[in-house]
């Protein structure tokens, strides 16, 4: 899962987005990635998911399918959003590389090489 808060800095919706981010972090201890819809990546995301109102919170699965989308005055409760952020964190943790110095041993066919 991937969860992103989209908002335009220095705009009318900035205060709502920043207040939401601050309160979400204070109540849950979790952070929420943000994206400016006026950047190249933000513009692409808004076009792909037809996001026209801000702030917006987009949750997608690992294949990019929309799981939830909230915008404007209708943002999710902190507990509701926390569930999706937890799912995102669990996915990221499962992708962590092996600890330093560890090697993956490949199975052999039982014959000595050399």
Short recap of the structure:
The protein has 114 residues and is of the alpha+beta class. 37% of the residues lie in helices and 16% in strands.
Describe, in plain words, how this protein is organized in 3D.
With 114 residues, this protein is of the alpha+beta class. It has one domain (2-94): Glutaredoxin. Helices cover 37% and strands 16% of the residues. The chain contains three helices and four strands, in the order βαβαββα. Strand 1 (2-6), helix 1 and strand 2 (34-35) form a beta-alpha-beta unit. The longest helix is centred in the last third of the chain and has 17 residues, at 78-94.
Total helical segments: 3
> Would you tell me the structural class of the helices and strands?
alpha+beta
Q: Tell me the strand order in the biggest sheet.
A: 2-1-3-4
Order of helices and strands: EHEHEEH
Extended strand count: 4
What coarse outline follows from CA principal-axis ratios?
globular
Rg, please? 20 Å
Distance between the termini: 47 Å
CATH-level-4 superfamily name? Glutaredoxin
**CATH-defined architecture:** 3-Layer(aba) Sandwich
Layout of strands and helices, then pairs:
Blueprint: E1 2-6, H1 14-28, E2 34-35, H2 40-49, E3 56-60, E4 66-71, H3 78-94
Parallel strand pairs: 1-2
Antiparallel strand pairs: 1-3, 3-4
Structural features:
single chain, 4-stranded mixed β-sheet, alpha+beta, 16% strand, 114 residues, 37% helix, Glutaredoxin, 4 strands
């Amino acid at each position: 899962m991937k969860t992103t808060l989209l908002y335009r800095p220095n705009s009318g919706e900035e205060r709502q987005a920043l207040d939401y981010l601050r309160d979400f972090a204070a109540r849950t201890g979790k952070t929420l990635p943000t994206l400016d819809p006026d950047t190249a990546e933000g513009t692409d995301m808004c076009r792909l998911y037809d996001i026209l109102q801000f702030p917006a919170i987009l949750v997608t699965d690992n294949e990019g399918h929309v799981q939830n989308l909230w915008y404007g005055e209708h943002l999710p409760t902190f507990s509701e959003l926390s569930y999706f952020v937890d799912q995102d964190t669990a996915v990221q943790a499962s992708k962590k590389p092996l600890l330093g110095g560890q090697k993956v041993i490949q199975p052999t066919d039982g014959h000595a090489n050399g």
